[in-house]
Specification:
The protein has helices at residues 22-72, 75-78, 90-98, 113-121, 158-163, 177-191, 226-229, and strands spanning 108-111, 130-131, 151-154, 192-194, 197-211, 214-220, 250-255, 262-266, 269-271, 276-278, 314-320, 323-333, 339-348, 359-365, 370-373, 376-377, 383-384, 393-396, 401-410, 422-426, 434-441, 446-455. It is α+β, with helices and mostly antiparallel strands and 461 residues long. Among the domains are: 197-320, Beta Barrel (Elongation Factor Tu (Ef-tu), domain 3); 351-444, Elongation Factor Tu (Ef-tu), domain 3 (Beta Barrel), CATH 2.40.30. The chain is flat, with a radius of gyration of 31 Å. The termini are far apart.
Length: 461
């Protein structure tokens, strides 16, 4: 028989007690803290990269949308004030197009529906029509008797189409608040990218609301509270200025009981207290209101595929998300009327401000990838610094060109009109800069600038 010996633990040597020492614990904690800190640092970086990726994706989508719109509406570039369509003869129409390139000072311009009307509604009648200012008035005077540097800004013909009058003849004091609200709505529809729709409520139909054998609304189940419905916009509460029909800022989607069929309508009215949703301009009692102002009482019946009588299951209420991305066009034309360069500039949710478009003294030299910029002093004696950002953009206001900033540094001893305060390194070389004192704009919120190249004058114009 073999006898197995069970090993016994070896007792610790004298002076060396069993267990973990404090030094070992501290070393372990130090190693763990280094690892945890490295992981924690990655989270904000990943969030930042995710935000940048989302912005670039939406920016690219808006850019393609703008290009598609320009193929359908070339007058946005070639007739940016929209007066071509109001001319009665061919000569008048050709002169309407020629005004945007025949004079050297008018060959470069900005098409910016959102910025134009936001500035206009804020009371800046003149500054709305010009891109770039010195903090008080349009343009920037480099001194020495040189003309003021400023680019004409147009609204893409929204004024002329809505008011049937030339844009240059319209003043702020001549418009009512209803008209300003409606113009703001139209320019947001034209110049901004919505982020889709947000689901406000997902419920079920408890009862159908019928008028003359047509389902014109539904009553939702009792688990829906009046507060769930009170803030959803409808045709009764959202008609900008009372002048825009069917803005359709909110809609109801109806699903069949099987879930295989769906139908979407604009919401005309909500009776929150009784949980009733209407998509018709009639109610079940025969009362009617022309919510969209089209002169017809719209019934909007359900398709026959929902059955006779119709069967409705889920009811989903959605509303527009805020518009976060807007576009503007930088246009450079030549003496023959052709567009020699156009850029789609996409901005993210920055609003508009006069100081955002302030022009700073600058120097651009052809062929160099470096620009020089000065800070300015405002009327109160305060120094105003340009908003510099690596990866941001600088705009050459004299030549209507955008450049991406890769780096910048302060210059010791720089002062306005002699030395410069900042040296800015650009991603690409400067085009057409002559090195003289000109102006630069640092527009905040620019996600990207997409050059479109040259565009011929369309045969349709």
């Amino acid at each position: 028989m073999r006898i197995r010996r069970i090993p016994h633990p070896v007792p610790a040597a004298p002076g060396h007690p069993a267990g973990v020492t404090l030094t070992e614990v501290l070393m372990t904690l130090m190693i763990m803290s280094i690892g945890v800190s490295s992981v924690v640092v990655l989270f904000p970086i990943s969030v930042l990269r995710s935000i940048q990726s989302t912005q670039l994706t939406n920016s690219a989508i808006l850019k393609y949308n703008v290009e598609s719109r320009l193929r359908q509406q070339p007058d946005l570039i070639f007739d940016p004030d929209g007066d071509y369509t109001f001319q009665s003869d061919d000569q008048g129409r050709q002169l309407a197009l020629a005004e945007h390139y025949r004079g050297g000072g008018s060959r470069n311009y900005i098409v910016d529906p959102v910025g134009f009307h936001a500035m206009f509604s804020d009371g800046f009648d003149t500054l709305a029509r010009y891109f770039g200012n010195d903090g008080v008035q349009e343009g920037f005077d480099p001194g020495g008797g040189a003309p003021r540097i400023a680019l004409r800004r147009y609204d893409g013909g929204v004024f002329t189409k809505f008011l049937a009058a030339e844009e240059s003849s319209i003043t702020l004091g001549a418009l009512s608040q209803d008209q300003l609200d409606a113009l703001g709505f139209l320019t947001r529809e034209l110049g901004m990218l919505g982020d889709g729709r947000t689901i406000q409520l997902d419920s079920f139909a408890l009862q159908l609301l019928v008028y003359q054998n047509v389902v014109i609304g539904v009553q939702l189940t009792e688990d829906v509270l009046p507060a769930d419905l009170s803030n959803i916009p409808t045709g009764a509460t959202t008609r900008p200025g009372g002048l825009i029909s069917d803005p359709e800022t909110a809609e109801v989607t109806l699903f069949s009981v099987s879930g295989k069929l769906s139908q979407t309508f604009p919401i005309t009215l909500i009776d929150a207290a009784n949980r009733k949703i209407y998509w018709s301009e009639y109610d079940e009692n025969g009362n009617s209101v022309d919510f969209n102002g089209n002169g017809v009482m719209d019934i909007r019946p359900l398709p026959v595929e929902f059955g006779i009588p119709p069967q409705i299951g889920r009811v989903v209420l959605q509303s527009d998300r805020p518009n976060d991305y807007s576009w503007m066009l930088t246009v450079r034309r030549s003496s023959d009327g052709q567009v020699r360069g156009a850029d789609v500039v996409v901005r993210f949710n920055t609003g508009t401000s006069v100081l955002d478009e302030q022009i700073f003294p600058a120097s651009f030299t052809d062929g160099l990838a470096v620009a020089y910029v000065d800070a300015v002093t405002d009327s109160s004696g305060n120094i105003v610094e340009p908003t510099l950002k690596r990866g941001g953009f600088i705009f050459d206001a004299e030549n209507a060109r955008w450049y991406r900033i890769t780096n910048y540094e302060g210059i010791a001893g720089g002062n306005a009109f002699s030395g410069f305060d900042y040296r800015i390194t650009l991603e690409t070389s400067i085009i057409r800069g002559d090195g003289s004192l000109s102006g630069a704009i640092f527009l905040p919120g620019v996600v990207d600038v997409y050059p479109m190249g040259s565009l011929p004058l369309p045969e349709s114009l």
